[in-house]
Amino acid sequence: MSEIERSTAGFLNRAAIGVEGKRAGESAVVSLLRLAARETPAAPHRSTSFPRHDAASFPIVTSVLAAALLIMLAPGLALLGGLIWLVDGRPILYHGDRLGKHKRVFRIYKFRTLRVGAENGLQGDLVNHRHALETRLGPFLRASRLDELPQLANIIRGEMGFIGPRPVRPAVYERHCTRIPGYDRRFLAPPGLLGPSQLFTPHSTPKRIRALIDNRHLARRNRLLDESLLIVVAGGRLVWNSLHLLVKPVLHAFRRWVGRGALVEERVLQRVRIRNGSADIDGASGPVARGCRLVDMNEEMLLLAVDKGAEIPAGPLKLKLHVALRRVGRGLKRKRKTACCEGRLHIVRPAAGEEAPQLVVVAYHPSSDLHAYMIDQYFLRKSIL
Question: In whole angstroms, what is the distance from residue 283 CA to residue 217 CA?
């Protein structure tokens, strides 16, 4: 077993809570590590560099393509910048230091999605919804990745490429990444506008797993075809996500306009309906309910359909969430993913009829960073691809 694999196994053991949580975490991530993040044995003559068969091997071509895209998108970027100025005020663009190839510091450009001065307060922390630092347009820009488009200027200047590990803030690197085996291999290639690990995993993914995925991509012999396919597929998906995010508030406003406003709840965090989801609930004294239907959830609350006879205690709860994922191809069984959480009863809604279950809202938080990744990836479905 290699050093990276031993380190990842140790991380999984420390991150999971209890024996059952450990088994759930290991089984959930093993497919990701096998398919996307398997370490490739390196030959001695390639120990300090990656194969040069990617778009970054042709910097002039990459810069010309980025310039052409920037010219084509200029009207849309100007319109988006004007919208940011009207809604969130100035400045329109954010610029900050990032580590590039060979750890050279360069200045990155993005449309502003956080409040002015937010980075000073974050220090080395990673942004999440609990910080409440996003501007009004921030959630849309971050979810659609439109905030990254000004980085075409960085590609023109030769500081970045189209596909590659995402550039990291120096403070984040010093705080979270220096002890991750193999993490510095990313600095042998230019950072990218789109990162392989960014496309296939949510933002909450532990840095160790993301490093494995990025290193796996960088170690491939011919990355040019892979990167071309990733750009096409990811571009189409991002366009679809952007249209979905634009249509959603329009439908919300239409429902209120036609008189159904009483049925529409205003939520800061939008709930995601869970298909084929279930939950097991344990209290301080033992099991409370098994196989409850997981109706929907967001980053803080989840809604469960519980049998009428079950009494949910007001004290601390331990929850094990399950979801069955559909697999592509005939005859393939659904894959089951599990995440462990801790929570408290928030509210109980009485059953609508004699046969109907009671609806229980539980405030929860994941048991570890690994389980937070599981929830974002398989329950909330936050990854792009």
Answer: 44
Helix or strand (DSSP H, E) at 144: helix 138-144
Lowest mean pLDDT among 38-52, 153-167, 173-187: 38-52
Q: What is the pTM of this model?
A: 0.74
What separation in angstroms does the CA of 239 have from each of 79, 94, 225, 272? 17, 23, 21, 20
pLDDT band, very low/low/confident/very high, at 48 (cuts 50, 70, 90): very low
The values of phi and psi at residue 304, to 5°, are -120, 140
Q: How far is CA 342 from the centre of its chain?
A: 21
CA distance 91 to 135: 12
Distance, in Å, from the CA atom of 63 to the CA atom of 84, rounded to the nearest integer, reads 27
Cα separation, 240 vs 247, in Å, equals: 11
Query: Which pairing describes strands 192-194 and 161-163: parallel, antiparallel, or unpaired?
Result: parallel
Structure confidence at residue 29 (pLDDT): 44
Which burial class, exposed, middle or buried, applies to 178 when counting CB atoms under 10 A from its CB (0-12, 13-18, 19+)?
exposed
Question: What are the residue ranges of CATH 2.40.10.220 in the chain?
Answer: 272-379
Q: From start to end of the chain, where are the E strands?
A: 93-99, 105-111, 161-163, 192-194, 272-273, 277-283, 286-297, 301-306, 316-325, 335-349, 358-366
CA angle, residues 26, 32, 35, in degrees to nearest 5: 130
What phi, psi does 211 have (nearest 5°)? -65, -40
User: What's the whole-number mean pLDDT along residues 321-342?
Assistant: 83
In the structure encoding, which two tokens stand for residue 111, read together?
Answer: 């449309």
Architecture of domain 272-379: Beta Barrel (2.40)
Nearest to 146 by CA among 81, 64, 214: 81
